[in-house]
Amino acid sequence: MTTASTHLTVTVWERPGAPPRVWTLTADPPGGTHPDPEAAIRAIEEAQRPFDPVPRGALCAQVYGGPQRAVIEGHWRGRPVSARYDKRNACEIARWKALSAVLDASDA
């Protein structure tokens, strides 16, 4: 059985002007330069619509979670992906938390 390919590039900025952290992520088997590819792939698989933006018109509490920004681009199971993440309100914070194993990984 052939599985559609997964190859993602994860780019995270801790704050404006900071140099980004950039990792690659593959699946089947989990791999790439990400510090914990198994946990990252599992987080994506378990999240509901992990690459979809917050729906237009969603009511989101105005809670600021920090200056972090992230982009995930590439292909997930053969489907093109281009998703952006930040922590500017409660809805965006929830998206970030769902993928914390992907976005909050440490190179250490």
UniProtKB/TrEMBL annotation:
The UniProt record lists the keyword Transmembrane: no
Keyword Secreted: yes
Single GO cellular component term: extracellular region
Subcellular localization(s) per the UniProt record: Secreted
Tree of life domain: Bacteria
UniProt cross-references to InterPro entries, sorted A to Z: Subtilisin_inhibitor, Subtilisin_inhibitor-like_sf
GO-annotated molecular function: serine-type endopeptidase inhibitor activity
Keyword terms, alphabetized: Disulfide bond, Protease inhibitor, Secreted, Serine protease inhibitor
Pfam families in the record: SSI
Subtilisin inhibitor domain location: 7-84
Family: Belongs to the protease inhibitor I16 (SSI) family.
Identification of the protein by name: Subtilisin inhibitor-like
Organism: Thermasporomyces composti
